[in-house]
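Objective 1b: paired records.
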Amino acid sequence: MFRFLEIWETEEAMSAQFATPHFGAFQAAVGDLGMTAMEGNKYEVASVSPLFG
């Protein structure tokens, strides 16, 4: 199981990252490992503040 957390400031930044050559190379490499399914979730956060302090 692989679990990733990525944070983008905008929808455009997320889309731009998906269009990069390294993202395509990653998808190809994962396929070579025998991965048979992928699940993704997108969450929109209204605000962020420090947990402590």
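Objective 1b, second protein:
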Amino acid sequence: MELDYEYLARISKDAVLYTSRKTTNILDGGYNSVYRGKSLEFDDLKEYSQGDDITSIDWKSSSRTDKLLVRRYIAEKKHSVLIIGDTGAKMDADTPAGDYKADIALMSMGVIGYLLGRQGADVGFACSGNRGITNTPFRSGGQCVEALLRTYGASVFEDPSSDMNALIMNMLQSFPVRRMIIFVITDISGLKAVDNQTLSRMTERNDVYFICIDDAPVTGGRVYDRIGEEYIDRFLAGSRSLRKAEEAERNNILTRFKTDALRNRVVLERVQTASGVVDTVLNLFERGRSGIFG
């Protein structure tokens, strides 16, 4: 399937429409509290954790509570938002709800770009394609969102062997100093590829959010395998033991990733429908602001 400009324009318009209907004060007027930086504007206190700046320890408050507390400040500078999108034939597939994974991936980008663009953030994008890694410069404004959608749409079905872990590490090496808010749009195989060491590197300087697009099961019905480009054998598709093994594998991947995400202060949300993308993105910010990780 080739994604044309009209299709991408509709995705962008739908993102704006859904967001206008559902946006709450999670971001409006309160977005600064999501992003932590070092400025003169004090925000709150939190308990010290490994990696925090020891010069920010509030000794007076710590002595009153018998806990080591660290001062947090609201960042003054413009936010840099990096969206990393998964690609490959696996995106040309359905979710358990019957929605198209590519639609949800593009809608996720549109919603993130629109919401953060309204806050004046600079948004960049990266994905893997047939010609290597595509990496757009950080820009702001409504036209920037449409340009990012066109870039993602042109590559979303490319590079079936895309390695999400390698892509993320490449982006971290490309921006060794810049502090960012990173969104990763992927699926269960993408979560499987990203290891704890990579999550640790991501969160050294950045706020990190993952959106996992759920895959339709390969068992339980007449299923077409997009990777192998053939229908799955009826006997295998109807196997109860195979279905249990598939569910167990997915649960193991999710459990491992959530454990690593909690350890590294990463927020994960899953989505199955295009209409649920806005709530998913807003939930990401609400959980990040409330310190609910994993």
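Residues 23-40 have pLDDT under 50 and may be disordered. The longest strand covers residues 36-47.
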